[in-house]
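Sequence design from tokenized structure. All designs in this work follow the same two-part layout: the structure record, then the generated sequence. An example of the structure record is given first.
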């Protein structure tokens, strides 16, 4: 069976936001263009120290290297948005929206 090159296996796209309003605006934009609630995740720490989110981040498709970067960002109050894209078009759309709303991706 041939695989359609435009359809992805659920791919996780993630970005850190330093302001809650920017993260909320990005979520709104993602939902507006057709992403479902179940495809968009937000993770952050409102107060106190950040717990170990390793298992959670692994379960949504974040690599261990990215998880370490994000863990350090959580210590400074960052919010992580994770978007699951199912097609190449959705991946491009998610990347554009996250970037346009101030999301920072790991290098």
């Amino acid at each position: 069976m041939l695989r359609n090159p435009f359809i992805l296996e659920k791919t996780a796209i993630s970005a850190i936001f330093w302001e809650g309003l920017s993260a909320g605006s990005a979520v709104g934009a993602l939902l507006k263009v057709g992403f479902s609630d179940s495809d968009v995740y937000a993770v952050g720490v409102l107060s106190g120290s950040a717990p170990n989110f390793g298992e959670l981040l692994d379960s949504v498709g974040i690599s261990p290297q990215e998880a370490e970067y994000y863990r350090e960002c959580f210590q400074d109050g960052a919010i992580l948005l994770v978007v699951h894209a199912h097609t190449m078009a959705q991946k491009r759309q998610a990347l554009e929206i996250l970037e346009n709303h101030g999301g920072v991706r790991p290098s």
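The longest strand covers residues 7-17. We note this feature because it recurs in several other targets discussed in the main text.
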